[in-house]
Structure formats: C-alpha cells, structure tokens
Design brief:
The complex is a heterodimer of chains A (about 120) and B (about 110).
Chain A: E1 3-7, E2 11-12, E3 18-25, E4 34-40, E5 44-51, E6 58-60, E7 68-73, E8 78-83, E9 92-98, E10 110-114
Parallel strand pairs in A: 2-10
Antiparallel strand pairs in A: 1-3, 3-8, 4-5, 4-9, 5-6, 7-8, 9-10
Chain B: E1 4-7, E2 10-13, E3 19-25, E4 38-43, E5 50-54, E6 58-59, E7 67-72, E8 75-80, E9 89-95, E10 102-103, E11 107-111
Parallel strand pairs in B: 2-11
Antiparallel strand pairs in B: 1-3, 3-8, 4-5, 4-9, 5-6, 7-8, 9-10, 9-11
Classes of the chains: A mainly beta (about 120), B mainly beta (about 110).
Chain lengths: ~120, ~110
C-alpha cells in the first residue's frame, strides 16, 4: 500500500524558516518524480515544486523561486521542502504527492501557519 | 501559467440525480507526446484530495462507474450519473501538460 507521511508543519513567525519532510513507502520511491502541493485559503490548490527521480532536475512555481528548495534522499525514501523567508501567504496545508503529471497518491498533509 | 476555469463553483444536487462540472483551460492540454493530462480530484471534508479520473476519461482504481470524464483540447466535463451522499465535497480539475501544473478553483458539491 502506498503511503506518504508528511511532517514538520508548525507555527512560524514571518521571515522564519521551516523544513518539511515526507516519508514514502509501499512503492519504489526512486522510480518516481515527486512533488509538493499546497492548499491555501486564498488560492486553493497550488503546485509548489517537483523533483526528478534522481534529484537532477527541480522545478518551482515562479512565485516561490529562491525561497523554497525541494530535495530528496532515495536511500531514505524521503522528500523534503526547505522553506525560507516565510510570509502569511505561505500559510497552507502542504501535501507530498507522487508526480506522474497528475497526483495519483497524496499524503495526509502537514499544516504550516505563518503568524506573529 | 495555464488557467483552469471551473463552473459552476457551487452545485447543490438531489440524491440520485445526475450532476455535471465543466472545466476549461486557457490553452490546449494536448501534450507533444499525444496525451492530454487533464485529471479530476475530489476532496471530501477533512480528507486529502483523491484522484478520480486521469487523462480525461480514465477512472482510477476503486472509483465507482457513476463517475465519468470527457472532453478534449480546452474543454472538459466530469459527470456523476446518480449522486450519492458520499460524493459531497470539492471537485477540482487539474492539468499536468504545461509546467507549472495548475488546478481549477474547485466546485463545491452539496446535497439539497
């Protein structure tokens, strides 16, 4: 059974940083592109970033470039999202998804709240 | 970015009756590999989104056959032949043809 378990969400002050993690199991992690998708109150569902099977290619939504970094560790079957210079607009539930140009599997999500 | 426009945004339905949601994209979703990466998702209250339909008209595993998808190019439709109580939630279309992948605004389906 495919499982994606996100962690690391928290309450953080504006300008702060946070690192999200996603533990994957039930499939061959290294064979799949992976992504982070977020759901905000204002914008609904928004694709954040994706990363190729071996980590050699990474793509970001333009508005987040430079602040967010996606990475993976295939030996640990894990996906990460480093988020810097956070603003209130980054408040969202962040989901880890398998990326086959769609999202057949989603994690349960982790809540990031940016507030003073 | 490709803009995905859904209608209606709110859809009150009667149990047992059909329902239909439209999704239009700002550019063609036909990829150079010939596939059209248009998918449909349902997010029930308190749950993560679940994919129902992939590449326009293919039902994901375990999805009841009362759900069907159709369309081409820039114009797509999700139909529910007979709405059941468990179909309540927010439906999203999503395109995976042009980066960044983008979602529609969502259509909230509720029982009358």
């Amino acid at each position: 059974e495919v499982q994606l378990v996100e962690s690391g969400g928290d309450l953080v002050q504006p300008g702060g940083s946070l690192r999200l993690s996603c533990a994957a199991s039930g499939f061959t992690f290294s064979n799949y592109w992976m992504s982070w998708v977020r759901r905000t109150l204002g914008k609904g569902l928004e694709w954040v970033a994706n990363i190729k099977t071996d980590g050699s290619e990474r793509y970001y939504v333009d508005s987040l470039k430079g602040r967010f970094t996606i990475s993976r560790d295939n030996a640990k079957n894990s996906l990460y999202l480093q988020m810097n210079s956070l603003t209130a607009e980054d408040t969202a539930v962040y989901y880890c998804v398998i990326d086959d140009r769609g999202a057949p599997y989603w994690g349960q999500g982790t809540l990031v709240t940016v507030s003073s | 970015d490709v803009v995905m426009t859904q209608s209606p945004l709110s859809l009150p339905v009667t149990l047992g009756q059909p329902a239909s949601i439209s999704c239009r994209s700002s550019q063609s979703l036909v990829h150079s590999d010939g596939s059209t990466y248009l998918h449909w998702f349902l997010q029930r209250p308190g749950q993560s989104p679940r994919r129902l339909i992939y590449k326009v008209s293919n039902r994901d595993s375990g999805v009841p056959d009362r759900f069907s998808g159709s369309g081409s190019g820039t114009d797509f439709t999700l139909k529910i032949s007979r709405v059941e109580a468990e179909d309540v939630g927010v439906y999203y279309c999503m395109q995976g043809t042009h980066w960044p992948w983008t979602f529609g605004q969502g259509t909230k389906v509720e029982i009358k």
